Amino acid sequence: MNRLDVRKTYKLYIGGKFPRSESGRSYPAKSTDGEVLARVSLASRKDLRMAVEAARQAQAGWAGLTGYNRGQILYRIAEMLEDRHDTFVGQIVAAGAKPRAATDEVSAAIDALVWYAGWADKFAQVHGNLNPVAGPYFNISAPEPTGVFGIVAPDAPALLGLVARLAPVIVSGNTAVVLASEPSPMPAITFTEILATSDVPPGVVNMLTGSTEELVPWLADHGDVDGIDVMGASPQQRKRLQEGGALDIKRIVGLRGSVVDRSPQLIGAFTETKTVWHPKGR
Amino acid sequence: MQDTSKVTDTTPAKTTGATIDLPGDWRYAPSRQSSAPVTIADRYGLFINGGWQRPASGEWFPTINPSTEETLSEIAVADGADVGRAVKAARNAYEEVWGPMSGTERAKYLFRIARMIQERAREIAVLETMDGGKPIRESRDFDIPQAAAHFFYHAGWADKLEYAFPGIDPKPLGVAAQVIPWNFPFLMLAWKIAPALATGNTVVLKPAETTSLTALFFASICDEAGLPPGVVNLVTGAGETGAGLVSHPDVDKVAFTGSTAVGKRIQADLAGTSKKLTLELGGKGAHIVFDDAALDDAVEGVVNGIFFNQGHVCCAGSRLLVQETIHDRFVDKLKRRLATLRVGDPLDKNTDVGAINSRAQLDKITDLVESGVADGAEIFQPRCDLPERGFWFVPTLFTDVSQSHRIAQEEIFGPVLSILTFRDPEEAVTKANNTPYGLSAGVWTQKGSRILWMADRLDAGVVWANTFNQFDPASPFGGYKESGFGREGGRHGLLAYMDTGI
User: Fold this and answer.
1) How confident is the model at residue B284 (pLDDT cuts 50, 70, 90)?
2) Quick one: three-class SS letters along chain A?
3) CA atoms of A127 and A207, how far apart (whole Å)
4) Residue-level pLDDT at A225
5) How high is the pLDDT of residue B2?
6) Given CB atoms, is A224 within the 8 Å cutoff of chain B?
7) What is the per-residue pLDDT for B9?
8) Are β-strands B319-323 and B232-234 bridged in parallel, bridged antiparallel, or unpaired?
9) Who among A135, A141, A277 is closest to B492 (CB)?
10) Using a CB-CB distance cutoff of 8 angstroms, which residues of chain B are in contact with residue A277?
11) Does A265 reach chain B within 8 Å, measured CB to CB?
């Protein structure tokens, strides 16, 4: 007798928990040839607001960890991702990719995490410096995380794109609300299972699946989001995110470059530079 | 910039009044800086492609001296056609001359300009004071020397950009559209133009409507320095000119310094484009004084923090947070110090507080001060004889201010200080951060660990500890939150004008 396989229910990831959409809605995730892979949650405006709230609550604590500690957590994510390498290859292949390309993509995502893990206790040395001012003052500039970022994750490559845009956001101490790729949500959801088991504090990364078109305006206009990475957004969605950003001077990142960029400048784009002066004297 | 004329506090225990009694009918003798070094033309055209051009609009507007209300000159109104010509000139210069030029050659132009500013510093300072109303002591000792320093500092970067950011092959962006405010007209021009040129961009700059004269003077410096035509272009006019400039499709970079309201409009205007944008906007800086601070130094810092340049300073320390235990003593000291501030003729070398920049700004300050009284805060203004003509506002303190008052939330951009209290460091941080702005903050305490603890938690791009209002070309300046994004000055400031690939 054949054994009936046990299917996974794909849910959202908010504040370290896996709720369904409060709206009760879902949509089918399909492979490139139209086969339904699973039904995934269709997040609502309220889900997005809960996600932003969770991200805000987690932000100070995450930023308050030492860089050494955050680096170990990012490295831990890489460890767990390596451990589930085949799961992701399977998902990416099921969505329509060639096995070799899928394997390379998962490996590249793991390596990107390792690369960023090493930056956690170094980027401030590269982005900060003592400023040689013309007077008797100690003057130092150092980067600080901006706060809560929204990320519109790229559709392709779904896993590597997600990791490449997320890692430079969280490495400095930001927290994130991610709109997962609408056509390819499954790697994103499986990735949240890794986050949940990698010592990443609840709320540091929040993942919403659903209609990007529907969620973009709510993300754009949300008053407690400090910035948005628009790399994965369509031109129309980018414009809408920029317009919403203008309501409260959000930082808009991802207008240039490519989905899989890897750069200390990208870490810097998600930070603020603080300069502190103090007189020198006896 | 720093006021070193400290009041000697001889009787701290007995003092309660707000005035210093001096024997007899004592008053300062006038010490007026002559305006003779300055020649002002009757009319100024637009500086486009290395030459002076008549505006396509055929329109001109008067620029006045805010301390006398006399018309100084007439300035061209640039319309869309003028802006288009200026952008085209900048584009050509970028492609033909400035872009291909070696960094070393660019550097030499900037060094030359720095030297010419130094050489003509007094002329520029007097012109700045006449056109804008700021005390000559400030334009002479702060604005113009700092502007020269900015060109000198950035000149040296022009051929060293590959060392500025590891792994980055630095490229210019192209044509930079720059819109600057009226509070530090010449200095803001330097903050904008020096880094843009050093990194290989060309520039179209619009000075503020009320303060165009020193920018136009700068055009003549560019000309005399032999700067290639089109590298720096100036379009004058009001907000409409600026809006046309920043939204011009052939502009690659927009840099704006001004109000948060206009900054938001510009950010919205740029939606749908990938123009690189930096914004340096408003502020409501918290100036925090702990009970263990060197109080007399703190008084000087607080006074400088809000009355420097009539409070027309985006990073002004306009909210004083004073620890509850020393509130009365500290406010007494402040009131006595206020009574010694000299308000009046900006060209007088002893003037501390000059003219308000425009009638519109005076109306705005008056409105907010009236709201403070209406909201129930207690107002203090020293006795002060103001000139009959011109725009003036008496240095003002408000006590009993609560966080919800408009004068504790809105940027006044005038010589008005709102005083609140706190009990412990946590409350000081909470109150300091309770604003949409995040430009500057000041902390006065003798305890080093507390300074660093506070500095970590204050949402501010610049934190001054046991000092205030310090600026330097090597020191990045810019805001958190709705005070804008991007930095000006220092290594960080170069990023605003470079394509780093992301």
Assistant:
1) very high
2) CCCCCCCCCECCEECCECCCCCCCCEEEEECCCCCEEEEEECCCHHHHHHHHHHHHHHHHHHHHCCHHHHHHHHHHHHHHHHHCHHHHHHHHHHCCCCHHHHHHHHHHHHHHHHHHHHHCCCHHHHHCEECCCCCCEEEEEEEEECCEEEEECCCCCHHHHHHHHHHHHHCCCCEEEEECCCCCCHHHHHHHHHHHCCCCCCCCEEEECCCHHHHHHHHHHCCCCCEEECCCCCHHHHHHHHHHHCCCCCEEECCCCCCCCCCHHHHHHCEEEEEEEEECCC
3) 29
4) 98
5) 44
6) no
7) 42
8) unpaired
9) A141
10) 462-465, 467, 470, 475
11) yes
Task: Provide the CATH number for the domain formed by A26-279 in this structure.
Answer: 3.40.605.10
pLDDT band at A91 (very low <50, low <70, confident <90, very high): very high
Per-residue model confidence as pLDDT tens digits over B444-501: 999 999 999 999 999 999 999 999 999 999 999 999 999 999 999 999 999 999 999 8
For testing contact with chain A, the best of B154, B475, B481 (most A CBs within 10 A): B475
Catalytic residue check, B314? yes
pLDDT at A33: 87
Q: What average pLDDT score do residues B325-338 get?
A: 98
Residues contacting A248, CB < 8 A, separation 6+: A223, B264, B436, B482
Place of tokens 């003057």: A139
Half-sphere exposure of A267 (CA within 13 A, CB side): 28
Torsion, Cα B168 B174 B180 B185, to 10 degrees, reads: 90
The neighbouring-strand residues paired with B292 are none
Write out residues 226-285 of B within 8 Å (CB-CB) of A: 260, 263-265, 267-268, 270-272, 274, 279, 281
Chain B stretch 137-156, residues whose beta carbon is closer than 8 A to a beta carbon of chain A: 149
Domains and CATH numbers, chain B: 43-281+480-499 (3.40.605.10), 286-465 (3.40.309.10)
Q: Where are the domains of chain A?
A: 26-279
The per-residue pLDDT of chain B, averaged, comes to: 95
Asked if B326 and B291 count as a contact pair (C-beta separation under 8 A), the reply is yes
How large is the average pLDDT for residues A224-248? 98
Residue B167's pLDDT band (boundaries 50, 70, 90)? confident
pLDDT of the residue at B363: 98
Task: Provide ipTM, 2 decimals.
Answer: 0.95
Nearest by CB to residue A134, choosing from B462, B472, B480, is B472
Provide the shortest C-alpha distance from residue B122 to chain A (in Å): 21
Q: Is A275 on the interface with B (CB under 8 A)?
A: yes
CA dist., res. B502 & res. B488, Å (int): 19
The full length of chain A comes to 282
Write the pLDDT tens digit of every residue in B35-77. Answer: 988 999 999 999 999 999 999 999 999 999 999 999 999 999 9
| Å between B410 CA and nearest CA of chain A | 15
Annotated catalytic, B370? no
Among the options B222, B300, B314, B315, which is catalytic? Answer: B314
